[in-house]
What does this fold into?
Amino acid sequence: MRSKYMNEAKIAGIYGHTLILNKGSSDGIKNRMMFTVYGSEEILDPDSKDPLDIVRIEKDIIEVIEVNEKTSLAKPEQALYQYWAFRHSGVNAKDEFKNKRQIEIGDLAVQITKKESYGAYL
It folds into this structure.
């Protein structure tokens, strides 16, 4: 069954600020595509500690910077914004992102449009 989203991928590897997606050109991934990365968190009953639900938590937005046949390389918005802020305004952007959740191997990446991600660069 095809997903309702244009493209979905998983984080297959992490090397510094570079993320490896488990999808590539053979899956329709193209350079400069944007994805929101989600993790999941189990919600426990505070009294009984029984599992109540699993919720999807937005972690960051990533942009594809290189596409291979079966994999793609991407950079998280945090790294892109820090670079942009440093180059264009001298702003230290570390504080802007101190509350972002850490991207991990296995996290889900769901394609978004560039328009959905513009707010981060304004």
Observations:
- The radius of gyration is 16 Å.
- The chain has two helices and six strands.
